[in-house]
């Protein structure tokens, strides 16, 4: 029976490693490669941490399995109290601290480029492409009129959309993130962008999409009974297509319900 429990507790770590190794093949992993350079750097950090914890996990489980197996074979040896090894206690206290300090320093340049305004790409802060406001349970998007800059306060000619964020590819862009009610989380998994939306704050987020496509925009914070409905999309497109989208949005918002010729005739009257 001792050997059974020894094998039982050794089986689950092995199963966990096999499960993790098979996850990408079944789609239980990141949703494809990141479409931003910053996202690729975040992936590299993730895999570095994954390698470290995998090595530690395997090492500790091997040691545990060895101790269980040895104890299962020593039937005549009685248990006895031991204070332990002072040297081992120092090692397993200092080693994790060193690893954590290394990771904290190693990731600082990624955190700086993503979150510190002084290091944002040139021009992004001065010319945000949109304001994204989270509310229960949708994303409201405000664009400036073509040829104009987005102002902190809404303007009469601003353009509006719901759950449909557009951004040009090939250049760094910034959005202003708000929350109208409770705390939400702006999450673009394909871009590795995740930022909480805090009521009363305007939070800048920048990214640079390198590929065209439609990408999920989700709320990653449980924000109420309709949290599951906060699904939108990011359309990453060419600059010319982005400008055409704004012009179409402007035309749709200014449409008065009459054909263009009738509208001109009404104005002349």
Structural notes for this entry:
- This protein is an alpha+beta fold.
- It folds into 2 domains: 2-73 and 87-115; 125-255, Sandwich (Immunoglobulin-like), CATH 2.60.40.420.
- The protein is built from 6 helices and 10 strands, in the order H-H-H-H-E-E-E-E-E-E-E-E-E-E-H-H.
- The chain has helices spanning 2-22, 37-73, 86-106, 108-115, 239-254, 260-268; strands spanning 130-135, 138-143, 159-162, 164-168, 173-179, 184-188, 193-197, 203-207, 213-219, 231-237.
- A hairpin with a 2-residue loop joins strand 1 and strand 2 (138-143).
- Helix 1 (2-22) packs antiparallel against helix 2.
- The longest helix is centred in the N-terminal third of the chain and has 37 residues, at 37-73.
- The radius of gyration is 27 Å and the shape is elongated.
- The model has no long low-confidence stretch (mean pLDDT 87).
Helix and strand element order: HHHHEEEEEEEEEEHH
What separation lies between the terminal Cα atoms? 98 Å
Q: Strand content of the residues, in percent?
A: 15-25%
In terms of quaternary structure, the protein is single chain
The CATH homology group name of the largest domain? Cupredoxins -  blue copper proteins
Strand count: 10
Q: Please tell me how large the radius of gyration is.
A: 27 Å
Q: What can be said about the biggest beta sheet?
A: 5 strands, mixed
Q: Under the CATH scheme, which class of the largest domain? A: Mainly Beta
Name of the CATH architecture of the largest domain: Sandwich
Average per-residue pLDDT, rounded, comes to 87
Please report the number of helical segments: 6
How many domains comprise the coordinates?
2
CATH topology of the largest domain: Immunoglobulin-like
Spatial order of the strands forming the largest sheet: 3-2-1-5-8
Shape: elongated
In the predicted model, the low-confidence regions spanning at least 5 consecutive residues are none
Structural class: alpha+beta
Query: Percent of residues in helical segments?
Result: 40-55%
């Amino acid at each position: 029976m001792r050997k059974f429990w020894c094998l039982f507790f050794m089986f689950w770590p092995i199963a966990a490693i096999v499960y993790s190794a098979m996850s990408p093949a079944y789609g239980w992993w990141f949703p494809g490669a990141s479409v931003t350079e910053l996202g690729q750097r975040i992936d590299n950090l993730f895999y570095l941490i994954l390698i470290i914890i995998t090595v530690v996990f395997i090492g500790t489980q091997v040691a545990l399995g060895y101790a269980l197996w040895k104890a299962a074979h020593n039937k005549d040896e009685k248990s006895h109290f031991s204070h332990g090894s002072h040297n081992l206690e120092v090692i397993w206290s200092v080693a994790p601290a060193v690893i954590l300090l290394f990771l904290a320093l190693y990731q600082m340049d990624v955190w700086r480029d993503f979150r510190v305004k002084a290091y944002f790409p040139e021009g992004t802060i001065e010319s945000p492409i949109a304001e994204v406001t989270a509310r229960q349970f949708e994303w409201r998007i405000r664009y400036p009129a073509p040829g104009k800059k987005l102002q902190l306060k809404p303007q009469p000619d601003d353009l509006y959309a719901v759950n449909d964020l557009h951004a040009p590819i090939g250049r760094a862009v910034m959005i202003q993130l708000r929350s109208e009610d409770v705390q939400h989380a702006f999450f673009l998994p394909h871009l590795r962008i995740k930022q909480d939306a805090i009521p009363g704050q305007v939070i800048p987020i920048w990214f640079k999409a390198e590929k065209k496509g439609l990408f999920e925009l989700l709320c990653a914070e449980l924000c109420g009974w309709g949290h599951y409905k906060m699904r939108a999309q990011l359309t990453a497109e060419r600059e010319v297509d982005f400008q055409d989208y704004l012009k179409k949005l402007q035309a749709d918002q200014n449409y008065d319900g009459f054909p263009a010729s009738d509208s001109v005739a009404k104005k002349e009257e």
